[in-house]
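Notes, p. 3: input format for complexes.
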Amino acid sequence: MFKRIPLFLILVLGAWVLSLTTPSEAPAYEAIEVKDGGTVSGVVKFGGDIPAPEQLNIDKDPEVCGHEPRFSENLIVDKNTKAVANAVVYIQKIDKGKKFPTPAEAEAMKGVPPGFRAEEHAHEHAHGEEKSEYTLDQKSCAFIPHVQIIPAGSAVELRNGDPLMHNLHSYSMKNSAWNESIPGEGKPIHKEFPFKEMVKVGCDVHKWMSAWIVVQDNPYYYLTGEDGTFKITDIPPGPYKLAIWHEDFKKEALKAQTKDVNVEPGKEVTVNFELSK
Amino acid sequence: MPEKKDPIEEKSHATLFVVVIALLVISSAWAVWDEVIGRRPWKHYQKEFLALAETKSLKDLKEAKGAMATEEYKKLQEEYNRVSKAYEDNPDRKAQVQEIENIDRELADLIHEFQIHRGEYQALVYVMEKQPEGEGKQALLHTVRGLEPCIEDLSVKMTAYQKRKKELRHELGGLVREKASLEEKLIAYRTRLEGVERFREALKKEKVEIKQVVNWDMGIIDRCHNCHAGINRKGFEEAKEPFKTHPMVVTLSPLGPGLGERGILDIHPLENYGCTPCHRGQGYATTTAIKAHGELEYWLTPMLRGKYAQANCFKCHDYEIDVPGGEVISLGRKLFHEYGCVGCHSVRALEREDKTRFIGPTLDEISQKVYPQWIAPWVDNPKDFRPDTKMPHFFLNKEEIRDIASYLWQVSQVSSATIDPQEFDEEMIKEGKQRLENVGCLGCHKIGDKGSNFAPNLNRVGEKIRYDYLVSWVEDPTKHKARDRMPSLRLNKEEAERIAAYLTTLKEKVPSQEAVDYNDPKRAEAGFQLIARYGCFGCHRVKGMEDRGKIGADLSEEGVKPIERFDFALLEHEMMHRIGLENPRDNVSSARQAWLTTKLKDPRIYDTGKYKKPEDKLRMPNGSLKDEEVQALVTFIIGLTDEQIPQGYKRKLSERDQAVVDGTFLIRRYNCVGCHPFSLEKLTLKDGTKIEGMAKLEEEGTLFFQLWHDYPELGKKLGENLAIEVEEIKGRIPTVGGEIVPIIIGQLGEEKDLVPEEARAFAPPFLYGEGKRVQSDWLFRFVQAPYGLRPWLDVRMPTFGLTKEEANILSKYFALLDNQEYPFERLAERESVYVEAKCARDSEYYVKAKRLMDSKDVNCGSCHVRGEIKPEGDPSGWAPDLSLAKERLRPSWVREWLTDPQRIQVGTKMPKFPWGEFQQLFPGKPEEQIEAIKDLIMSPGDLLTAPPGTLARKGP
Ligand SMILES: [Cu+2]
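Output follows (1233 residues plus copper (II) ion):
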């Protein structure tokens, strides 16, 4: 096998490896020990009248995808508190700070997902199973989780828990885009995400399916759950820009929401966001 | 007695003699001096150049040697010795390579075995699950369990092998890579030194002597390089004249596809072509620069400098539309057609473009089409109404315009349309706008600042064209007599009405309501005369004047027309002063260029100060050309000569190149590039790496570039992104075509919240590799009568009403561009003999293939239409009709497409074939499964759509 590679290829390959600089993997984030760090917390709420949830047009494979009407997860707002779920709150630029979480630790950096039934997932913990990687699963023709945050450079395991074929199509621009199909209950596939980006994933067979993999280049982030609250901890004291992202709002509207925060040692700052359409 | 003086002795001629001798000596000396020095200024130049080259190469030599004496070099050498010793000494190396090879073999067998076993296993599990509870089920369960250890065992083995292989490759790879890269660096040092040494060797042999290029075929004796001694040598780019390197010895970026880093002089070597075929001048003159350049009285072809030398590309490259490296003349040629110059001026070499000379709309229907009040201001100043129009300004007064309008009005068909503008409700206008945008009009037209400049800008069309006419025009432009390029989009009446309603709202000003009368026959008579004089029928079809000839001068030999025939009128002195001449004869090239440039910028300028009757004034209209357009047109025109080039020297195009040129001409004429992207983007990086693919995003100085080939040297596979710093990019050739793609992506982002990458699937298809994809005869038929092929697209391939010849050119273009067989080819899969042979070997062959296609994990029918059988769900999620595939696609393409669609069209919605499954449905390797599906798709008759159970009977 090795013999078949022509010499010039080896030469060129070698030259490349030496000259290999990794452009634009930005000034890399440096993990340091954070003592006496501060905390930013708050809640994300919806401003104005909550739009009626959009019903999905589930027009294929009803035996697996279900007959009951289902609603889009693009925007999930609590009727009473107006709390917005699946919003990503993060610090925009920070070169040094706490280390990136492991997939298990990352569980603490998000709220309780909407519609989460503790009893359904009880067995996961009962078995003492610790989350060892980021996953994107598919059940009843929906992606689980709908939104997740991962550190730049980590991989996601793509799974298919349904008994029919799904294909996972990533619509990324900075990270390599791909389109992989997994047959019913087939073998999982791993994909890496080296660059900070909000990556949408869809299934070409079932048009309504969508998920977001939010790749962050620093570990200061939080994914809101059904109560809309967030809490970012162990921030080295100093001034920062706190930004928010949510799939259902326009870029400009989100940009306008970016807030200046000053983190003081050992203290907690409260910042609230109000997203409106 | 006085001594008698001897007259011979007495009369001394000594003085005279001395003088004469002196004169003789001086004149001989002068003759010698003149012969040796005075008339040979090149000797002096050559000596100077040799000295210059000596100094320069000595400096280079010192630097190259110096570099090899540095610590850095020594360290590199030591490092290399160390690494290569380590590599050679590694006793395991051979063993490791051998081991990897063994593992690969073992693995291939294992995987195959594994697939078969698992297939059996899954099939058994399925049977077992279906069994009612009981003994039978228990027995089956037992068998199933019995199979498990074997599968488990295989899987463990496979994993172990894969792990070991990875380790081995890692161990091996590290050293190899290191060694190779060090070696390459060392070689670079040596190559540099060797280059300088070679140059110095050559320099030693060089003599000061007359040099010349003789080419009797072309009648060339060129001695230019006697003074321009550095002209074809690299490294003298910064030297002073006449020693400079020609700027095109090696161009910095590739000139065009396939040309690479070769310059004009590499393709036309000095030794064969000399200089004068491009630059003109007096090639054999050696006594003064002025004479050599031919820039003196009575020399008819003085030198063409700089870009004007491109004028001469045309005499050998007359068939090509884009001459690589001849951007200026190519532009000139294109503009000559686009601005309608061909409408009035004959050019022998462009005769084949004559039938497409009507660049303006037909005027036969004008009274039905436009509001009468619109005409006068338009003709008076077309650029005022539409700044980017190609319609030039004619020097006409208001009365003359009215006369012309009267003629056109009276000969055009009587209008039945209502003139009053109509009111439409908001909803209708909105729907019209939406349809106009998503069906693809903006691929050619511009509205606001969105769209293309190919066809008329529609920004104020509501002030110009009547609603009724718009409706019938949009519905089917081909119904109108106009032999226009506007294609039919196969819209129905309702759609056309909505689009027309929207178009009537595109206004900037309230149009004048002032009554105008175009019915005076006397005015029509005067108008007829004016049209005859100004030649409107050069660009527009005008009723009653179809047979008129061209009104302008024949430009076929304009580049060699005697300078006396260029009338500078009263401006001669002033113009000559500006270009530093006494008289146009002193440098006919400069004078000719000046005359043409001035004429194109201001066509009536030579009437300045002259007494002329209105009808005698110059007739050429003013196109308000930009400076670079004028330069391009002048370059094109001065290249038109009577020169006969020997056949061997004309660019002979291969059949493929010819097909590409012809195809490109049509693709531009019908603006296929407005919608379809045609090629990949090509990048050259500063380190020499060349890559092809698509730019996806540029952010903060980094370009994210999706690769469309494998680049093992970059460690990247097809489809992966490469992040490149923008400043590392040396050359960039963008994708050709696809103007509408970003518009559609933007629109779908707004309307349907699609992210750009997702929206790309809704843009017109990428035609890169189209020749490999489709059968030529299908394409021939399709371009003549297109239909909706991709159910998810709103944007629509229009019907252009192409002739048979045009359709042939296009299908040939795509086939030959991708090196496919043309015109006839055999598609065995479509023959019944093939089907019979397959069935003879396995009577279930097509049945199994069909079962596989329909299985829940392949399920082609989930998205693909199959004739009358439609998939579930909304048509916007459907995929092309598979029953059309056998008429349309090439079998080899189908096989590759099924294997990995992403390798053919990165980003396609088509999922990858699930590799290595389905042993229970179609036992065999994935390649065999794909082959069977391909055979079924391509099979004749209705095998593909036949109901299940009937297939087996089709076998013999
Ligand atoms: Cu799916």
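The first strand of chain A starts at residue 30 and ends at 31.
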